[in-house]
Amino acid sequence: MIDAALLPLQRRVLSLPGRWLAASGVHANHITLAGFAVGVLAVPALAFGAYGLALLLLVVNRLADGLDGAVARLTGATDRGAFLDIALDFVFYALFPLGFALADPAVNALPAAVLIAAFVGTGSSFLAFAAIAAKRGESALRYPTKGIYYLGGLTEGFETVAVFVVMCLFPQFFAILAYGYAAACALTTLLRWHQGWLAFSPPK
After folding, report:
1. pLDDT tens across 99-137, in order?
2. What are the distances in angstroms from CA 56 to CA 51, 69, 86, 193, 198?
C-alpha cells in the first residue's frame, strides 16, 4: 500500500552501499541469491524458537532485496535479475510462516496454511496482471524502476515485512496475526481481480 511512497527514501539510503558494492564488482544477482539463502535460514530459526535470530535474518534478507536493485541500477538491470528478484521474494514470503508452523504445529499449522494460501492469491493475481500488462506494452507509472509491471494493493512488500516483524516480536500472537493478515491479503486479491477485469476488458 505504501511501497511507492517508500521507494525514493529506500534509494537514497541504499545508494552509497550500492555504489560501493558495484565498484567492488559484486553482481546484483549474487546479492539476490545470497539474500534469499539468508532468508531461508529464518525457517529453521523459527522452528527452533529462535525468534530474535529469525528477525535478524529477515532484516538481512530485506536489506539484500533493496541492495540488489541499487546495484542493478548502476550496472544495468536485466530480465534475469527481475525474474530472480520477484520469484525468490514470493517463495520467501511463503516460507516464513512455515517456520512458525514447525515451531508449534498444534497451534500454528492451520493459521500458517491459511496465510500461505492467501499469499497464493496475492502472488498469482500480481503475476497474472503483470504478464498481461507486459503483453500489452503497459508500464506502472508509480513504479518506473521495477523490472516488471508492479501492481500495488492493500498488502504489498512493506506491509508483509511489517507483519513478519511483529510475528517475531510477539510469536504467541502468530495465529491472530496470520488470520488477520490473510483476510487483508484476500481483500487485496479480490481488488486485483476486479482491477484486472476492468483493465483487460474487451474494447467496446
Report:
1. 999 999 999 999 999 999 999 999 999 999 988 988 887
2. 9, 21, 21, 35, 41
